[in-house]
């Protein structure tokens, strides 16, 4: 497992430092994943890659069989939102259509207007991966700083780093 984690760290470092490589990965991740030692099973017909940005956070609703492995990498609030979505189809539909309303239903917090939240749903034949923002480049904007100073939970949306479980899960299922 340590060898896999090191390979995924190398992949993330390259994605963060090489724009052309990142664009190729977003367009067609399978060959690059294979180069980095990830076996992509034949049943996976599509891998979609999403990139976090300062005002955009992407989250994935995994298939139920991967829930426990996936939420270990998420922060507690997002893990709670994901668990609720997988347990309640009406909530899942709401979350996919209006992520901020879904998060507010669970947390009671309003998220910044200028922040976009997207949830994507994995299926047995489609997986979604998120390229997190490079923590070395991440800075909070003024409204985010005000929220943190005021005790509001913007940091609930931060991904643990490095965000590699999505990659690990591809070759395990």
Task: Give the secondary structure arrangement, pairings included.
Layout: H1 2-17, H2 19-27, H3 29-35, E1 46-51, E2 56-61, H4 67-71, H5 76-87, H6 89-97, H7 99-107, E3 116-121, E4 126-131, H8 142-149, H9 165-170
Parallel strand pairs: 1-4, 2-3
Helix pairs in contact: 1-2, 2-3, 5-6, 5-7, 6-7
- Broad structural category: alpha/beta
Portion of residues in beta strands equals: 5-15%
Helix content: 40-55%
* DSSP E strands, number: 4
Give the biggest sheet.
2 strands, parallel
**Strand line-up in the sheet with most strands:** 1-4
Give the number of helices: 9
The SSE order reads HHHEEHHHHEEHH
- State the end-to-end distance: 15 Å
Give the low-confidence spans. Answer: 143-173
When the domains are counted, the total is: 1
Mean pLDDT: 77
* Gross geometry: globular
CA gyration radius, whole angstroms: 16 Å
